[in-house]
Amino acid sequence: MTVSKEDAHALAERADRAADRLAEAKASVAKAIIGLNEVVEQALAVILSGGHGLLVGAPGVAKTRLVHTLATVTGLDDKRIQFTPDLMPADILGSEVLEEGEDGRRSFRFLPGPVFCRLLMADEINRASPRTQAALLQAMQEGHVTIAGERHDLPRPFHVLATQNPIEQEGTYPLPEAQLDRFLMQIDVPYPRREDERAILLATTGTDEGEAHTVLTGQEILDLQGLVRAMPVGEETLEAILTLLERARPDTSPDAEVREGVSWGPGPRAGQALMLAVRARALLQGRLAPSTADVAALAGPVLKHRMALSFAARADGLQLDTLIARLAAEAA
């Protein structure tokens, strides 16, 4: 991707201003979220890329707190849906009710559901039935929903940050591949390190608990998303992405371990996600253009939910994270 000198200069100035604003945003998040620097960066990269994120972690590792904090810092109005087996699509999208006017005429009025916000938290998304999970598909992909044949546009920007507990699997419905592919990244939220947990205990059990403050606005988020798409991607970085995708697909990979152990690989949407995410990561770190190091860093979050190992490969002890990390290192 090439740009003129004038455009490059203007783009660099925009990127410098954006980097300063994003540094403020990260500093605000750090007041409420301790130690999860990489997780926070990946979540912000999802928003800057205009996508949706799947947060996976054990109970109590601050997934919910992170989403609420991001909503505060980005200035996006947020709503939360607790997914349960009895949740229905109308509980997410909204429904039409029959009303009778003063003149006796009856008409339907649409009552919007919680999906009509800018940052939706889908808590424990895998606890809802496939029918209810599918209700989010159109909203996540197209930015609007259809109720009774009528289109209703969602506000912009619109992002879904869903949470999932990898431990409890009873009473859950694994997300279908089509919906998983709608998430730009799967962000693993780990247990805190000892020093971070010490800081968490001191900060959250006293009289004063740190709180984030609003830094950005919805319009700034849209501007930043436009900037991310305008950032140049070098030929070396682009080739690294293409090589990684080729190596991760069993039909085209030269790697025997992939051909024999991977049931299906990432589709074109994975490449689009990587192209956006590496730019967002570079901007968050104050750089104008991404590098192959960004591709290696984000290969796992972008690909792990878009690939599946065969039963035999899992039985042999093959780990998807390890495989993706090796493929990314080879591609870069």
UniProtKB/TrEMBL annotation:
InterPro entries (alphabetical): ATPase_AAA-3, CbbQ/NirQ/NorQ/GpvN, ChlI/MoxR_AAA_lid, P-loop_NTPase
Top-level lineage group: Bacteria
Xref: Pfam families: AAA_3, AAA_lid_2
Gene Ontology MF term list: ATP binding; ATP hydrolysis activity
Domain ATPase AAA-3: 52-185
Domain ChlI/MoxR AAA lid span(s) in chain numbering: 258-318
Protein name per its UniProtKB record: MoxR family ATPase
